[in-house]
Amino acid sequence: MTPEILSLARYLASSRAEFALSEMNQYLSRKYEEKELYESLKPHFFDLNLFCDAHYNCTKLANRPLPADEQVIRELEEMLKAPLLPPAIEKLIGSYIERSCGKNWHTGETAQLLRENIVKQKEEYWRGSPKYPKIRVISYLLYHFPVYFCQFQYLLLDLLKGGLLTTKMSIVDVGSGPGTITLSAIDFLHKLLSIYSKKGIDVRLNIKIDSIEKAIENIDCYNELTSLYLSQNPKENASIFIKEPIHAPVEKAQPLRDADLIIFSNILAEMSAHPAERAGIIEKLASGSRNPTIMIIDPADLVNSKALRITQHALVKKGITIYSPCTFIWGTGCKGEDCWSFRDEGDIRVPEFMRKIATEDAYRYLNSDMKFTYAILKKDGTVEHKYRAGGKFARLSTLKKHVKKRINVVVSVMSGNLGDEKNFVLKICDGTTSVPCYAVLPAYHKNDNNLALLGANYGSIIEIFGALVRENKEFSSYNLLINRNTIVEPVK
Ligand SMILES: C[S@@+](CC[C@H](N)C(=O)[O-])C[C@H]1O[C@@H](n2cnc3c(N)ncnc32)[C@H](O)[C@@H]1O
Question: Average pLDDT for residues 362-380, to the nearest whole number?
């Protein structure tokens, strides 16, 4: 592109509320097709604050939170109730596998090789030493991609509800792999736009996506999948520009400027740095941005889940603040020690390509449950729940002196049901102690007084009146027994 096109666009963007690209020809030294102008300016729309539609009319884009009224949220929640890969994404991944491994990839030797690699990849991951040759990119798509794609959208929904998603966003996908997070974010925004258009809400999006990835095989896959998806699924009100991935270990990457949302999805466990030291890498990457939303997502297993809380705590020590899921109900920060807490969003409907590889030993090759550990952080102290406790409740750090007594507490619910259908067990926390505490509700005590315990979303706050404190010496933990007289109330 000649510099005169960009400088003219910059001038028009700053001096006019709207203009047609064709008008530019009045001022340029030679004539261009509108399409040519559009293509050459596309990488700059974000920085120019412009939205140019399919008819090449450009308007200034005001950055504002995405509308999130009750009806919009309800429709989105409805869509996420039956989590699955959208057909276009399932087809995209299925075709990629077919192009890479042949039409009959799910039979004979190829299928065997893929199955072996799914198993090896899982083993390597738990050892913290995964590698990504092309075959592992395919096994990742087959086994891990669908769950990680779906679970991310629940976190985006949280951000939407909290007003943290805006019409103009610069997103950074760190350790992007084959493009799980990038594709999931685009699909989520497309879903939102379709709800807005159904409801007659005029919203235009201008999104820029950067990514950082150390394995070239993943970058090749990322480039192919994301560019194909965007070209096959254009959305009238969305200008989405995916930048060339940065091929580097995140430890060596330069901080990106003015990012709004930085996501580390399933990458921390692969870093060689100790969990506390990972905070330095995250902080450095976020240092070029004023107040980005930083999202860290990791698996729910004991080791990775606890490690994430250590990283989170180290970030807090550096002045970065927790938006969710933890609420410091008493205003005291915890130490992030010995904290195993994860979110459970149930099962996805597995895609056809996963079924095809799981025709034998299905339990090894089907991956459907969305259990994940996460932290969402900000720099400015914004929190999901502003609630602070008053004096009428006991702190969980004082449970020792209340053993065998009935007490009132106010806590965040930090798990789904860890028990079974006879005994509901939920992890609870108020930020005052590292000793694990659980609310235990035997099914036969379940009634209207205490039902709110089971309806509480992960991270939400409840008040419990009249719970019996029991010490569980075997597990060095405390149980708060909820019976039919215990009252549980959600905090709005
Ligand atoms: C488990 S995959 C996660 C991919 C994707 N984010 C997701 O959630 O599905 C981890 C990715 O992080 C990349 N990775 C691991 N360590 C990295 C590092 N230090 N710097 C950049 N990328 C890294 C790997 O190459 C891989 O693509």
Answer: 96
Query: Using an 8 Å Cβ cutoff, are 264 and 377 in contact?
Result: no
pLDDT digits (tens, 9 = 90+) for 258-305: 999 999 999 999 999 999 999 999 999 999 999 999 999 999 999 999
pLDDT tens digits along 183-239: 999 999 999 999 999 999 999 999 999 999 999 999 999 999 999 999 999 998 999
266 Cα–ligand 1 center, Å: 7
- Nearest residue (by CA) to ligand 1, atom 26, is 177
Whole-number mean pLDDT of the chain?
95
CA of 250 to the centre of ligand 1 (A): 9
Cα 200 to ligand 1 centroid, rounded to whole Å: 39
Distance 252 CA to ligand 1 centre (A): 14
Q: Is 272 exposed, middle or buried (0-12, 13-18, 19+ CB in 10 A)?
A: exposed
Q: What is the best residue among 214, 271, 277, 301 to mutate for testing ligand 1's pocket, by most ligand atoms within 8 Å of CB?
A: 214
Q: Which atom of ligand 1 is nearest to the CA of 281?
A: 19
**Ligand 1 atom closest to Cα of 145?**
9
The ligand 1 atom at the shortest distance from the C-alpha of residue 215 is 25
User: In the prediction, which pLDDT does 134 show?
Assistant: 85
For the segment 107-131, the average pLDDT, to the nearest whole number, is 86
- Closest-CA residue, ligand 1 atom 9, reads 180
Residue 1 confidence class, pLDDT cut points 50, 70, 90:
low
State the distance from the centre of ligand 1 to the C-alpha of 307, rounded, in angstroms. Answer: 16
With beta carbons less than 8 A apart as the criterion, state whether 467 and 446 touch.
Answer: no
pLDDT of residue 9: 95
Q: Which residues line ligand 1 (CB under 6 A)?
A: 132, 144, 148, 175-177, 180-181, 212-215, 218, 249-251, 265-267, 270-271
